[in-house]
Write a structure and sequence with these properties.
The chain is an all-alpha fold. It is built from 14 helices and no strands. It is a multi-pass membrane protein. One of its GO terms (cellular component) is plasma membrane. InterPro entries: Cyt_c_assembly, Cyt_c_biogenesis_CcsA, Cyt_c_biogenesis_CcsA/CcmC.
């Protein structure tokens, strides 16, 4: 046994060994498939990639493998979305003029896939809500409609992520010298937000068996869908535009997605906060609640905030590094930076109060709900009402 191995506590070493032992042939086959896809991508689009983007490609492949090992449904989600996106790329055959083909026009073009995403989010919302009502009536924990809500949620995530991948390719077809990852404007990041939020909720639903909470989360997602549709119709936001100079950086490829994992988690937590208040009210009145116990809801909310806080912290650090590269300084107390710090501090205090001070219940639920408004202002309100170095992301 080496000195490095001796330094690892025995229980941690056993945990690591047991995790590796749980990996079966399907897990290693999945890892091989993702690695092969990354190698294929590098070989075919190497002329569009610098050393930083190659690093991002292989880091993304590693993250996809780990996600597939950690959350088993990702083993089919990731290959399926890549296969659908590659099918769309093949149908385009190097020309945007081929977009009128049947499969592209109605299913696989970025806009078609995103519209299917929006539709299935609405379908999932109704399935979850009606399914929860029937579960209450028949006093059951699950039923076919709740199961359909889960299926519709997965379909929406597949459609949305496929749409983003295809939109990336379409940007190069429209502007070969100005193609870019589709996280550059409000329309694109909201689609990314819907995908991330759906995947995170589906993970917690599977882990904690809380299908009845789907109506709360998808109500918020449906509101985002309404905004996306309005934004597309009134501002033609779905059209692909060239990157403005401020966003022509490889930092954007990692900063923005990381940020939206945090945003998605915080929004899930806020919806769960509403559910917890509802459950607490039922428990205090002595009525039988149709929701899971408030302690279970709070545990899911805590997990969501912990994950969101981790990724938001990483995103803030990446943003500081991007600022140093672009403006020559890591932090300037620009309004966007200031409000990002307020968001970070808000959830840092929430976690401190729960983990150290031992707070539970109604106060933390309200705190999570109010945190959504703080986060929303930091994301949208700052760009609308305050000026600064980040004033390029307005409505």
């Amino acid at each position: 046994m080496t000195d490095q191995t001796k330094a690892i506590p025995e229980h941690d070493l056993l945990t690591q060994q047991s995790f590796i032992r749980t990996l079966g042939a399907a897990d290693w086959l999945f890892a091989l498939l993702i690695a092969a896809c990354a190698l294929f991508a590098q070989m075919h689009i190497n002329h569009h990639m610098d050393i930083y983007e190659v690093f991002i490609l292989w880091s993304s492949a590693l993250c996809a493998i780990l996600l597939g090992w950690f959350f088993k449904p990702m083993r089919w989600f990731t290959p399926l979305t890549m296969a659908l996106a590659y099918a769309a790329v093949s149908l385009y055959n190097g020309s945007i003029q081929n977009a009128d083909g049947f499969l592209l026009k109605y299913f696989l073009s970025s806009q078609s896939a995103i519209m299917w995403q929006c539709a299935f989010i609405i379908f999932a919302l109704f399935a979850y809500m009606i399914g929860a009502a029937f579960a209450v009536k028949k006093n059951t924990q699950s039923n076919t409609l709740l199961g359909m809500g889960t299926v519709f949620g997965w379909i929406s995530a597949v459609a949305g992520f496929t749409g983003l991948l295809v939109r990336w390719h379409e940007s190069y077809l429209l502007r070969p010298d100005a193609g870019h990852i589709p996280v550059s404007n409000l329309y694109e990041v909201f689609i990314l937000f819907l995908v991330i939020t759906a995947l995170m909720y589906l993970y917690y639903e599977r882990k904690f068996a809380v299908q009845k909470l789907g109506g709360f989360v998808y109500t918020f997602m449906a509101a985002v869908v309404a905004f996306v549709l309005w934004y597309s119709i009134s501002r033609e936001a779905h059209t692909i535009q060239p990157l403005i100079p401020a966003l022509q950086s490889w930092w954007m490829k990692i900063h923005v997605p990381t940020n939206f994992i945090g945003y998605g988690a915080f929004c899930i937590a806020a919806m769960l906060g509403i559910a917890e208040l509802w459950a607490i009210r039922s428990e205090e009145s002595g009525k039988k609640s149709w929701l899971p116990p408030s302690q279970v809801i709070e545990e899911v909310m805590y997990k969501a905030i912990a994950v969101g806080f981790l990724f938001f912290t990483i995103a803030t650090i990446l943003g500081a590094l991007w600022a140093a590269d672009a403006w020559g300084r890591y932090w300037s107390w620009d309004p966007k930076e200031t409000w990002a710090f307020i968001v970070w501090l808000n959830y840092a205090v929430w976690l401190h109060l729960r983990l150290v001070a031992g707070w539970r219940g109604r106060v933390l639920a309200w705190w999570a709900i109010i945190g959504l408004f703080v986060t929303a202002f930091a994301f949208i309100g700052v760009n609308m009402f305050l000026s600064g170095l980040h004033s390029y992301g307005t409505l």
